[in-house]
Amino acid sequence: MRPPAPPRLWLLLPLLPPLLGCLRAAAPPPDPLSQLAAPQHPKIRLYNLEQVLSWESPFPANDTRPVVYSVQYKYSALGKWFDVHMVNCTQITATECDFTAAGLLKGFPLYFNVTLRLRAELGELVSAWVTMPWFQHYRNVTVGPPKHIMVTPREGTLVIAVSPPFEVDTSMVTFLYTVYYEEKPGMQQVKGPLQSNFIFLDNLKPFRIYCLQVEAQLFWNNQKIIRPGQLSNTSCYETTAGAHAKQQQVIGISVGTLLSLLLLAGACFFLVLKYGSVVKYLFRTPPSIPAQIEEYLKDPVQPILEALDKDISQKDDTWNSVSIISFPEKEREDVL
Q1: FRET label pair with 219: which of 3, 43, 265, 297, CA 20 to 30 Å apart?
Q2: Contact by Cβ (8 Å): 207, 254
Q3: Mean pLDDT of 123-128
Q4: What are the tens digits of pLDDT across the range 38-48?
Q5: pTM of the full structure
């Protein structure tokens, strides 16, 4: 006797939907906390030597749940993930991790290929990892302006001494400096890029004001990569004169003084010729006061005026004798 044939599977297909519906109804509803949201908008800040990772919380501001965050890193695409050891970036409540806050370690090596990932944690619940694109500090850094700029005006020259924005391994990278300057006002000129820390702006006009800005560019020798830098604040300086310019200035001052004196002398001579009589009148000796009047003015009590009056009366009474002699007509003719 042959065994009975097994039931055909296609005959059971109409029974599957009701069976799956029963299974869903029997399963417990999912816990909303098991779907923990991941951190949002992570970004890495590379400025000079700073390395700072920041992100935004996926939860509302009024959420009081004790959510913490953890950061990990690796140095190669196939490498192993590690917790950050230079600073504490594991289960922290802050939404930022400063890898250079440790001081001496100064974060990740500046020439390494670094990849970071981040997640949120709530008790035993964790979110998915958020992985950021890899970076190299020398390749992606934002270079600030030179740390110090000292300008010394000289004879028709400005000597500029600069220091790098941050310390680097000079066997791997160097800084190139460019100066943007202009006479105030005037057209902007450029000198550089130069590797030297001392830059000479020469052939400048004496006693003129020049305004300048300095840029430091980072050059990665092995990779042939140049990272542009930020410009320094604008500063202005006045140039001094060279020896030849000083000599010309002295000669010009001397000639100008001599010409002024000659013009003044000529003007005085012309005034004397034209207004000589007026000048004589103005500078003539004033008439003197008689001695008797001067004594009277000094002491009006003295009878000086009576004495003068008496003197004058006596002089008026003085007569001279006059004799008239007549000649005969004949003797008169002889005399004539």
Answers
A1: 43
A2: no
A3: 93
A4: 999 999 999 99
A5: 0.62
